[in-house]
């Protein structure tokens, strides 16, 4: 894949995913895990992490209310999903997200752009915070995007295998004026 020089942003389009995108999301997800994951996990964990990620996983998630946003660009002049972010309700006003970008497209602003879409969608639905079970590969990305570490531990892969992760949280600003702005703009008789 021919990528622009470091510091420039590749051409890509962002949009909400449809069920017809599910297979391409799965390909991007597996690529992200297999290309970035080995820097943080042993081969057997990377293999278990990527196993079972087929299009039907994302279709079922969409049917369950999870929203996916995708970045589409070119790999060797062929259109492809470069990455995705998801947004889903955990409970009350707590939402979850995950962001994955293909290794060849990483560190180009794609993940941050996708995360902003997921955050905006969560805020529009009334979210007050977003929570992630960040892979060790994603911790610095999430920190750079305003998440704070809550705890370290393990989560379970689809296979049931445990994987080390960092539990992270980001408080979200409600849409509309802040409380301070509301006070400044109110007129008292």
DSSP strand (E) fraction? Answer: 25-35%
Terminus-to-terminus distance: 65 Å
Number of helices: 6
Number of strands: 7
Compute the average pLDDT: 87
Question: What's the story with the biggest beta sheet?
Answer: 7 strands, mixed
* Low-pLDDT runs: 1-9, 176-189
CATH class of the domain at 13-127: Alpha Beta
- Determine Rg (CA atoms, Å): 18 Å
Q: In one word, what is the shape?
A: globular
Helix content: 25-40%
Give the neighbour order of strands across the main sheet. Answer: 1-2-3-4-5-7-6
In the CATH hierarchy, the third-tier topology of the domain at 13-127 is known as: Aminopeptidase
Topology order in helix (H) and strand (E) letters: EHHHEEEHEHEEH
Q: Structural class, from secondary structure content?
A: alpha+beta
Fourth-tier CATH superfamily name of the domain at 13-127: Gcn5-related N-acetyltransferase (GNAT)
Second rung of CATH, namely the architecture of the domain at 13-127: 3-Layer(aba) Sandwich
């Amino acid at each position: 894949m021919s990528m622009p020089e470091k510091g420039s942003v590749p051409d890509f389009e962002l949009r909400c995913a449809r069920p017809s995108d599910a297979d391409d999301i799965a390909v991007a997800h597996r690529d992200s895990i297999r290309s970035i994951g080995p820097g943080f996990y042993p081969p057997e964990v990377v293999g278990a992490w990527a196993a079972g990620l087929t299009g039907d996983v994302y279709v079922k998630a969409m049917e369950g209310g999870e929203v996916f946003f995708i970045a589409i660009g070119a790999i060797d002049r062929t259109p492809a999903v470069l990455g995705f972010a998801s947004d889903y309700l955990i409970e009350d006003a707590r939402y979850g997200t995950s962001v994955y970008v293909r290794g060849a497209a990483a560190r180009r602003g794609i993940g941050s752009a996708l995360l902003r879409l997921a955050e905006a969608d969560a805020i529009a639905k009334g979210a007050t915070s977003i929570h992630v079970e960040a892979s060790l590969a994603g911790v610095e990305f999430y920190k750079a995007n305003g998440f704070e570490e809550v705890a370290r531990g393990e989560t379970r892969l689809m296979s049931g295998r445990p994987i080390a992760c960092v539990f992270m949280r980001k408080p979200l600003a409600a849409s509309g004026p802040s409380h301070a702005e509301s006070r400044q703009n109110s007129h008292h008789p």
